[in-house]
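In this section we turn from sequence analysis to structure. A common task in structural bioinformatics is to predict how a protein folds when a small molecule is present, because the ligand can shape the pocket around it. The inputs are simple: the amino acid sequence and a SMILES string for the ligand, here adenosine-5'-triphosphate. Study the lines below before reading on.
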Amino acid sequence: MNLDSGGRGLGSSASRIGQAPEDNRRNIRPLLAVVPYVMRYKGRALAALVALVVASLATLVLPVAVRRMIDFGFTEQYAGLIHQYFSVLILVAAVLAGASALRYYLVTTLGERIVADLRTRVFDHLTGLSASFFDSSKSGELVSRLSADTTQLKSAVGASVSITLRNLMLFMGSTLMMVVTSPRLSLFVLIVIPIIVLPLVAFGRVVRRRSREAQDTLAEASSYAAELIGAIRTLQAFTNERMAKTRFAGAVTRACDAAFASTMARAWLTGIAIFLVFACVVVILWVGAQDVYEQRITAGRLSQFVIYAVFAAGALGELSQVWGEISQAAGAAERLNELLAIEPEIKSPATPVPLPTPARGDVAFEEVRFSYPTRKDATALDDVTFRVRPGEKVAIVGPSGAGKSTVFHLLLRFYDPQAGAVTIDGVRLADADPRDIRSRIALVPQDAAVFAASIAENIRFGRPGASDADVARAAELAAASEFIGRLPQGMQTQIGERGVLLSGGERQRLAIARAILREAPLLLLDEATSSLDAENETLVKTALGRLMEGRTTLVIAHRLATVLSCDRILVMDQGRIVEQGTHDSLVAQGGLYARLARLQFETTPEPVPVV
Ligand SMILES: Nc1ncnc2c1ncn2[C@@H]1O[C@H](COP(=O)(O)OP(=O)(O)OP(=O)(O)O)[C@@H](O)[C@H]1O
């Protein structure tokens, strides 16, 4: 068994993420979820908005200056004014440059901050989700949400939103100025606008759907890669590199094809937008040229109008480009929203019942029936009733798949039973805060998770904040000091990811040190069956013996030695407790335990008690 495991196929919650209703007309509404994050930096956002308005106004002043120059600047009568115009223009340029630089800085840093907050929030949320959620989702996909989707949002908040706002402002300002400059020509523009806008909106939708598909296939490919890289040794040992390569290449090709489709849609969008916009500008120029010819407007005014028209068209063009990006970001926001909306199934009740202090370490299962959420049809525990008194040491034995680890899962409240109750110190776990429960439990899993950090940090995982002296003492009691002393930097030695630099026995002793440091009244021990060498085995046994002292211990026992040293043995088979008693009484019964014990005695003739 593996208490840290996840990923047993895709189930309900996983299919909830990543599959939004395709014809979602709300479009960019998911992006609104970012607003509260922006509001945390009100000052910065406001300053960015001011810079944006100033830059846009400075841009809008330019065409007026151009008209005056054309209409008056070239006549002798106003020759003196030309110097004034140019000086003012330089000033306007300086304001434009300053405001634009400020806007860029403020908006980009705002994006960085928001995405940092969002990443932290998503990670926080993930760590609080229940085991059942992780049973049915792929870790690589979740990591992709955390990195790729948040990055996409960053570019949207950091750049696209600012470009959108700037162009919107420019578009509206230019349109207004166009009307002021020439109502007649503006009327022509009004007629052509729907011709430009409608196809763009329709195409934007296609882009959004395609990019979501691209993102999903990418997540699939990276989840596959993450899984394989995580198990690289197994992969190489079974010489399955070629198969993995082919499968990954397939996933990458699918992701690439999806990206191609999305890019193709965006390319069309850009092309159509540019053509429509410029064709319309040309038509209007055409009409305007006639007007100048017939002296309905001056050349300067036409120039002013044309520049505004170009501004407006350019702004629209840019809007159409970022619209794609904004829609993409909306897709990312939607996925993150879905993830954030998943409620942990195991939660603390509104008013949790506090566990009594001091803790006694009294455990009871009462008529517990349980099936895993991903396998509702198979009963993992069936009418299980037992009690472990404070300080008692109870072994759980039974064939593989009997439900031994499931007992631990329920005690840790990773899941709630469908019927019956699990209690610790007389409090039903469903009524207590899961953190409270877990803080009273020290777990030594069969395959302990070791993190890419120093030895000391790995031990301190048992009780963050423990002093160096406590960590060293825990290592000493776990019989780990000797091997730690031999490492190049002792306690500070960095161990590779998943502790690949340590042997199995060393990893186990680290896990034991961690559990010792936790000082919890209830000890859950999943004894390792891995064949340790004799010396290592003795060391681990001694360490475990010390760990069990004065604690209520439940141990999934694989070694007869452990079983002999326990006060009582529960024998499980197919989710039920089929026998219980001491070693001798169970052997005398001649049932399942007697059979299992005989097998053990035959292979290990001289069992050594643990304590
Ligand atoms: N997370 C899970 N989701 C769905 N089914 C599970 C899950 N974990 C275990 N099971 C199933 O529940 C049953 C009991 O499993 P459990 O891990 O408790 O057995 P075990 O006695 O600890 O076995 P082992 O000694 O091999 O670790 C098995 O049929 C197993 O396939």
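The chain has three domains: 14-340, 349-440+521-535+550-602, 448-519. As an exercise, try to locate the residues that line the adenosine-5'-triphosphate site and compare them with your own expectations.
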